[in-house]
Write a structure and sequence with these properties.
This protein is of the alpha+beta class and about 120 residues long. About 55% of the residues lie in helices and about 15% in strands. The chain has a three-stranded antiparallel beta sheet, with no helix packed on it. Helix 1 packs antiparallel against helix 2, helix 2 packs across helix 3 and helix 3 packs across helix 4. The radius of gyration is 16 Å and the shape is globular.
């Protein structure tokens, strides 16, 4: 199944208590990160760009992360994701890797991948 459809279905079915506009923005942000955009306000906004302007995309992401409800909704999303991953009879293995991305190791990229049947799913 296409990644977009999987993300949309998960968010709609598991996070129904979240406001619809925040669900749509969360799905767009997740898809932007999956598309290779860095996890920063500006880079996520650039990942949301369609026919809209950058200013509108920045406002959309800023409202999502600035919402008072984000902390509780993030916990609900994490719990739903963990429940989905644990639904299989197979053990849940999370491989974590970090790589220096700046000279001298000033910055590092941290990547966690869930493995199933010997294959990683970032």
């Amino acid at each position: 199944m296409h990644a977009h459809a999987i993300v949309q279905r998960f968010i709609e079915t598991q996070l129904g208590a979240m406001h619809a506009a925040r669900r749509r923005t969360l799905a767009a942000a997740v898809l932007a990160v999956m598309g290779g955009h860095a996890l920063s306000l500006t880079r996520l906004a650039r990942g949301l760009l369609g026919a809209g302007a950058l200013k509108g995309a920045l406002k959309r992401i800023d409202r999502l992360i600035g919402s008072d409800r984000v902390a509780s909704e993030a916990q609900a999303a994490a719990a739903a994701l963990l429940q989905t991953l644990r639904a299989s009879a197979q053990p849940l293995i999370i491989a974590v890797d970090w790589t220096a991305v700046a000279p001298g190791g000033a910055f590092a990229e941290l990547r966690a991948t869930v493995t199933r049947l010997g294959m990683g799913r970032a």
